[in-house]
C-alpha cells in the first residue's frame, strides 16, 4: 500500500467527512505544514530540491520549504549546526565533519555521484598554463590549484590526483578563494593554474577561450560520492519522520531529474519542461537559450532514493584525518546516520 502523505490524509478525511455530513477544517488548519529551510547552491546538482519544491513534492509531504543560497559548502554546515538551516545538500567538508564530531550534524543521504558512462567533474586549467605545457593531470606537480576553503571537496580532489599520479600532496599549491565565482575568475585570468568542477559549470568554461579541460575526476576518484544530504543531529533524533518526508520528496525530484536528463527515459517534452524549471535557479542570470544547453549537458547522476555510498564517505573521512583537518576520534557513526536510506 502506498504511504499516505499529510495532504493525502487531509483529502481522504475531507471526503469521508463530506460523506458522513461532518464539517472538516480547511486544508492547513488542522494539519499545518512543517516549515523548513533548505541550504542550496545554484548548481544543477541541487536540482532534486528545486524540482521537489516546484512540483509540490515537498508540499505533498507536509513541508513548507524556504531556500537559503550559499556560495560554498562549509558555511552551509555551520548554518545547519546553528539551526538557521534545516537541511543541506553539498559536498562533505572539514567544517561539516568537525561539527559532526561535536554531535551537531549528521549525513543522512546521498546526492551527486560519479558514475561510469556519465560525464562528471572535469579537471580544468587556464589557457596560459595549457599553452605552457600543462596538458595532463600528471603535470599538476608544482602548479597551483583553486579551492574554496581548506578542507573543501576541491582540496580533496587535488590531493587524490597527486596520490594517483605519484607526487607529494604538498607539490600542488592550493589557493583558497572562498567562492566558486572567485575561483572561476582566477582561472580565466591565469592567477591559478587548475581547478575541478561539476560539468554544468566546467563544459561552458572549457568551450570558451580562456580555459582548457585536461581530465576527469572520475579517473582519480571512481564512484565518488560528491554531495550528501545532511541535517542536525537533533533533527534525526527529535523529528525522524520529518527527515524521512524530506528525503522522500527529494528522492522524487531526483527520479524526475535522472529520467529526463541522465537515463533519458522521459519524453523530450518532459526534459524541456524540467530544464525550464531548473533555469529559475541555475544560470537564471542568463537568457534561457544560453542556459539550457549548460543545464542539459552538465547533468550528473543523483542517487536513486538518496542512496549513500559509505565506501566513498569512509575514504573522504580517512583523507581528512590524514591531513589532520579533523580529529582522529571522528568515526563513521559520528558522521553518518545510515538509518534513513539504503547504503553500500
Protein architecture, described:
With 344 residues, the protein is of the alpha/beta class. The chain folds into two domains: 33-113 and 225-335, Periplasmic binding protein-like II (D-Maltodextrin-Binding Protein, domain 2), CATH 3.40.190; 122-219, D-Maltodextrin-Binding Protein, domain 2 (3-Layer(aba) Sandwich). 43% of the residues lie in helices and 15% in strands. The strands form three sheets. The protein has a five-stranded mixed β-sheet, with helices on both faces. A three-stranded antiparallel β-sheet has the order 8-5-9. Strand 6, helix 7 (153-165) and strand 7 (173-176) form a beta-alpha-beta unit. Helix 11 packs across helix 12. The protein is globular and about 65 Å long. The chain starts with 5 loop residues before the first helix and ends in a 9-residue tail after the last helix. It is found in: Periplasm. This is NitT/TauT family transport system substrate-binding protein.
**Fraction of helical residues:** 40-55%
Q: Tell me, rounded to a whole number, the average pLDDT.
A: 90
CATH topology of the largest domain: D-Maltodextrin-Binding Protein, domain 2
N-to-C order of helices and strands? HEHHEHEHEEHEHEHEHEEHHHHHH
> What is the CATH architecture annotation of the largest domain?
3-Layer(aba) Sandwich
Please summarize the sheet with the most strands.
Answer: 5 strands, mixed
Give the structural class.
alpha/beta
Unreliable stretches: 1-7, 9-30
